[in-house]
Design a protein that fits this description.
Elements: E1 4-7, E2 10-13, E3 18-24, E4 31-39, E5 46-52, E6 57-59, E7 67-72, E8 77-82, E9 91-99, E10 106-109, E11 113-118
Parallel strand pairs: 2-11
Antiparallel strand pairs: 1-3, 3-8, 4-5, 4-9, 5-6, 7-8, 9-10, 9-11
Length: 119
Amino acid sequence: QVQLVESGGGLVQAGGSLRLSCVASESIFNIIAMGWYRQFPGKQRELVAAVTSGGSTDYADSAKGRFTISRDNAKNTVYLQMNSLKPEDTAVYYCNTRAKPTAWIYNYWGQGTQVTVSS
């Protein structure tokens, strides 16, 4: 069973930076994309940033220009560098990997890491 483990969340003042990391417990075959989602209380999880196996990236409008997603295939790790953080970025952030190791597509999720931005 593949596990994704996030780290790097915490409390930061507005304008500050955090770097989230997500490492997979084992190599995942045939990854389609890796990404970061966030969830506000009482809301559905939403995409923050994603990177495909080909290296293409996609960002939520709120993340463009401030957040950068990157991946290290050799380390089975995906990162989210978050700069110029705002109080409205406060949420639980989840790592996601979508892969097709068999005939089926799988979505793997991390346990989530809290990011709190104080004003």
